[in-house]
Write a structure and sequence with these properties.
This protein has helices at about 40-50, 60-70, 110-120, 125-130, 140, 160-170, 175-189; strands at about 5-15, 20-30, 35-40, 75-85, 90-95, 100-105, 120-125, 135, 145, 150. By secondary structure, it is α+β, with helices and mostly antiparallel strands. Strand 5 (about 90-95) and strand 6 form a beta hairpin.
């Protein structure tokens, strides 16, 4: 099995905000594919807090796991999203000490929350990325606006147009583009 390195691209709330789910979007490190994974609110909060370097008053579960591994002299080397069955992703946390290396089954959301605490690499099997990855082409996002083929970028839209694009993107579950639109709106406020 070939493994492909991923980076965290973004985290956004799901279109159906009543379910409390979030979309975690991972990006192929050297490519155009994205891997969206729907995760729970607790895991999204844990990931966001670590990314933003927010330290809670009491350790969260993923921080507890890290503290435990430290006490027994283990480190997280990497995580690997291994499989996709019936729309459910499976992953493994690869850990080691000075003598041994082994893997632990985990939900990808938990594995990623732990990986970022160790600055460990996130990988996906090529089969999973082939099956669930979405090809993303920057040039397809921006629209042609005239016959002379001038490309219109987000900077060319009014705030009203951007808000409309944000709503459309969320309705289409295009979270990555929605995040870009949201960021452009924030820049202007």
């Amino acid at each position: 099995m070939k493994k492909i390195k991923l980076d965290i691209l973004g985290l956004s709330s799901s279109v159906d905000s009543q379910t409390g789910s979030f979309a975690l979007v991972l990006k192929e490190n050297k490519g155009d594919r994205r891997l969206p994974i729907i995760i729970g609110m607790f895991e999204a909060q844990s990931i966001a807090m670590e990314i933003e370097k927010i330290i809670p008053n009491r350790p969260m579960t993923h921080d507890l796991f890290k503290s435990f591994l430290k006490k027994v002299n283990f480190v997280v080397n990497e995580i690997l999203i291994t499989d996709l069955k019936d729309g459910v992703f499976f992953s493994k946390i690869i850990i080691s000490d000075s003598k041994q290396k082994f893997s632990i089954d985990a939900r990808p959301s938990d594995a990623i929350a732990i990986a970022i605490r160790y600055k460990a690499s996130i990988f996906v099997s090529d089969k999973v990325l082939d099956d669930a990855g979405i090809t993303f082409d920057e040039t397809e996002v921006d629209k042609k606006v005239s016959d002379d083929s001038k490309i219109k970028t987000l900077k060319d839209f009014s705030v009203k147009e951007l808000n409309k694009k944000l709503s459309e993107s969320l309705a289409e579950e295009n979270y990555e583009f929605a995040a870009r639109v949201r960021d452009e709106i924030k820049k202007r406020n």
